[in-house]
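Question (not urgent): is this output format expected?
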Amino acid sequence: MNTLLIATGNAGKVIEIQHEFAAMPREGCLNDLRIIGLKDLNPFPECVEDRPTFIGNATKKARHYAELSGMLTLADDSGLCVDALGGDPGVYSARYAGVTGPGADAANNEKLLNAVKDIPDDRLSARFVCAMAVAMPGADLAVMVDDVRGMLIRNPRGANGFGYDPLFFFPKFGKTTAELDMATKSSISHRGKALRRMIAFMQSLPNSPNNDRIN
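Got this back:
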């Protein structure tokens, strides 16, 4: 258990998760833990994220890549849920505009802004949701879910984040997620909160890779 695979090719997610692990004391099986992403390994068959919920997709990804890699694997499925859009884009957040690759974020943001163009500003409440699952080959270990609420703005601001971060505004800070420094963002974000709970759980795992504990 000296390697943790983060089941994503999104470099921004890997950096955020590495930052959170670095900020917390490591004990037990987390001592000397090496954290890598999918891009650090030879390509695996992609996991099809076809579940209707964040929990379903996170769990499926964790199982999929744990079996293929033979490693302790952490996966998350996260997305933006806009109240006035009935919770959309939701689990389709990353593929909302049907674009993949470097232009996906811009295309998704453009589609979202078009979807809310006739909705008054005071009705643009939204929340980021994160479901995070950890698995080993043959064993689901835990799932944690958390969220954070804010408002959408119509003009992107900031360059520190990815995805919908430039459009997600925190009235408390007067900034978008993409304008916050890493430490502040992690302290309040959906992914940061879910990850801290997951790390606390993982601290209790024994060092044996044959653990079959489920939370």
